[in-house]
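Figure 2 data, in text form.
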Amino acid sequence: MERIPYQATPQAAAYEGLRLPVSVLLDNVRSAYNVGAFFRTADGTAIERLYLSGITGRPPQRAITKTALGAEDKVAWEYAWDPMPFAGTLRARGYEIAAVETSLHSVDLFDWKPRFPVCVVFGHEVDGIRPELVAAADCSVRIPMLGAKHSLNVATAGGVVLYELLRKYRALEGSVHEEPGDRFSVHGRGVRG
């Protein structure tokens, strides 16, 4: 089977020019491999920017490059030791701040109705997000975990959340809807799949 880039398929027309109004704030993510995976997913979902803080690694680092495969050169990013100014600036610009964290008050990812633009916050792989950053968030969102473990790897969680945000944004914008005779239609153009 020949592999071709997604952009070369007819389905890619639905995403042409799309910029997902989402940013990601990584705070104290200790694994540079996880950071690299976030860069790659950020590129794949066309988010606006990655914000890196605390002990989170930043390019250029060999482990980030190994996982990101060049995406670290394509995705806009900023670094600061303290994440709180990032959160404050984003809130002032009208972003909903959502902590991806399991708590009694967390909303299920699939029930969450994000108010775009959104900044999703991910934290330390073991300790989670700093309490002051969770307190500054507008909401907490959790991924349903049906097995024995209560969380995913942080980079895997990032992929799940970012692609769900992409799906919700497209639905919100009404860019995909059913029409008779079409498998789905995009902006009035029938695309058979």
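Caption note: The mean pLDDT is 88.
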